[in-house]
Specification:
This protein is α/β, with parallel strands linked by helices and 239 residues long. It is built from nine helices and five strands; from the N terminus they run βαβαβααβαααβαα. The protein has a five-stranded parallel beta sheet with strand order 3-2-1-4-5, with helices on both faces. It starts with 6 loop residues before the first strand and ends in a 16-residue tail after the last helix.
């Protein structure tokens, strides 16, 4: 039997936000084609997590694409010479663009998602940008997403011929971490499969001290739910 569900490409990093976004797309009735990038980030844990999440949530297909943004560096996530910030107060996290920002990452990722969508005949792309990233990362802002969508209509054969108009969905953009977690739990997301840490141990344990860990911890605390992530022993007291 042929699946008549509309197709959507869903960017899946292996983190809390992207897992929730995949669940949202699935619940909305899309046949989800998950897209993950191995782009030279500090660890492979998030790629492994993405693989498990895609399987658990029933993605129609999961593609893992290799890039090497380490050639450019410029981010604590792709350059070992730049330290990942630790132990920052939460009010500092979104005060300025942090060194964990990867230059042009979402532009690169969305461009490849657009390419796959055109091949699939899909008109929809989902990305898990959210309010907590809004003031920190320039490529998570609503204005950026709207501009990319306008560009996509001009950049593809299907768009120019009027056969396909891309819609970029950002279902989490106005939500806090607490609200994202609550929505994901309602959709059956198993957050044990997700990883958020920018600087995990070789065994994949979260540091509990980087910005991503601290925002995650706060979200679970505000939701009144225990965070199922595995933390390094010396970070246990921060949870």
């Amino acid at each position: 039997m042929i699946d008549a569900s509309p197709k959507a490409v869903v960017l899946l990093s292996g983190g809390l936000d992207s897992a929730t976004t995949l669940a949202v797309a699935q619940r909305a009735g899309f046949a989800s084609y998950a897209l993950t990038f191995r782009y030279g980030q500090r660890h492979a844990a998030e790629v492994d997590a993405a693989r498990e999440i895609a399987h658990a949530l029933g993605a129609a297909q999961h593609a893992i694409v290799d890039l090497d943004l380490r050639q450019f560096g410029g981010s604590a996530l792709t350059d070992d010479a730049i330290a990942v910030p630790k132990d920052r107060a939460l009010h500092e996290v979104t005060r300025e663009i942090p060194v964990t920002y990867v230059p042009a990452r979402n532009t690169i990722f969305l461009s490849l998602a657009l390419a796959w969508a055109e091949v699939l005949g899909a008109s929809d792309v989902f990305i898990g940008v959210n309010a907590l990233d809004y003031s920190g990362y320039p490529d998570c802002r609503p204005e950026y997403i709207a501009a990319f969508q306008r560009m996509a209509d001009l950049a593809t054969k299907a768009g120019v011929e009027g056969r396909q108009r891309l819609t970029i969905h950002t279902p989490l953009i106005g939500l806090s971490k607490r609200e994202i977690i609550e929505r994901g739990l309602a959709l059956g997301v198993d957050y044990r499969l997700t990883t958020s840490c920018y600087d995990p141990s070789p065994a994949g344990e979260a540091c509990g001290r980087c910005d991503a860990c601290r925002l995650r911890q706060q979200g679970f605390a505000e939701a009144g739910v225990s965070d199922p992530a595995r933390y390094a022993a010396d970070a246990a007291h921060d949870r």
